[in-house]
Amino acid sequence: MQTDYVQRFLFEELDIRGRLVCLTGAWQRMLDGRGYPEDIASLLGHTTALNVLLGANQKGAGRVTLQVQGSGPVKLLVADCTSDLRIRGMASFEKPQAPPPNERSLLGDGRLAVTLEDIRSGRFYQSLVPLEGETLEQIFVHYLTQSEQLPAFLRLFADSGALCGLLLEKLPQADSRDPDGWNRVTHLASTLKLDETRDVQPYDLLTRLFPEELMRVFRLYPVEYHCPYDADKVKDMLRGLGRQEVESILAEQGELVIRNEMCNHEYRFDARAIEELFH
Predict the structure, then answer these.
(1) 231-277 CATH, one of 3.30.2350.10, 3.40.50.970, 3.90.1280.10, 1.10.340.30
(2) Under DSSP, is residue 39 helix (H, G, I), strand (E, B) or coil?
(3) Which pTM does this prediction carry?
(4) CA gap 33, 264 in Å, rounded
(5) Exposure string (b/e) for 153-169, b if CB count within 10 Å is 16 or more?
(6) Which DSSP letter does residue 14 get?
(7) Angle in degrees, CA 25, 45, 47, rounded to 5
(8) What mean pLDDT is predicted for residues 167-180?
(9) Class of 5-225 in CATH
(10) CB 100: neighbour CB atoms within 10 A?
């Protein structure tokens, strides 16, 4: 049973393409030890789902990073996905004084930043758009329509146990092939629920959702959470600061603590560890 995947597909007779992402184990590992409230986990899950859908469309050694920056209780949502579908992410938030009435109240005003990076060359392209929409799903649809220049349909679901994202894109010849095709498949896609995606093979899910449409289903791509504990990288960073600077921080604080918020790792160095570092 494949539970962490992206499935690409094409409606053969409609000129409409789609991608489906469903994560359980990889998503739970991203949340492990975070203690996010359910509404915060849901927003991060939506961001991660779209991030994987975009990452699955990248070629070569690339990386897609989504950042939602807000003025509300949710200050930052970050999701990162490489072209080989290794993911990581985090949320930064303040606990609201009262339960927010909707997602937009959690986000407030802000912007969405989408960064496409070529890891080999170091070149990157970044798109910045304001948060337009009442839900994160609406905000993302607005971005997709503007950036891809194609009508897009997006469904995003997430709780602490699983996430799912379904993206459909209407290609230029769709109306000439079937004037009602886009309305038909988006109506069917809008009936999808998160619980229907758990413990279901993607082919079975798609044929159940679109029972009368002819689909071409492509290779299934696995997704994994990848944010390893890397003490050597932190040690190299400390050596780069220099012994004098590191020892002055140690003298002031008694212990050196480096925290990686993205991976939820903490690195601690006492006087003995610093002595060994520069020996």
Answers:
(1) 3.90.1280.10
(2) helix
(3) 0.89
(4) 8
(5) bbbbbbeeebbbbbbbb
(6) T
(7) 130
(8) 94
(9) alpha beta
(10) 16
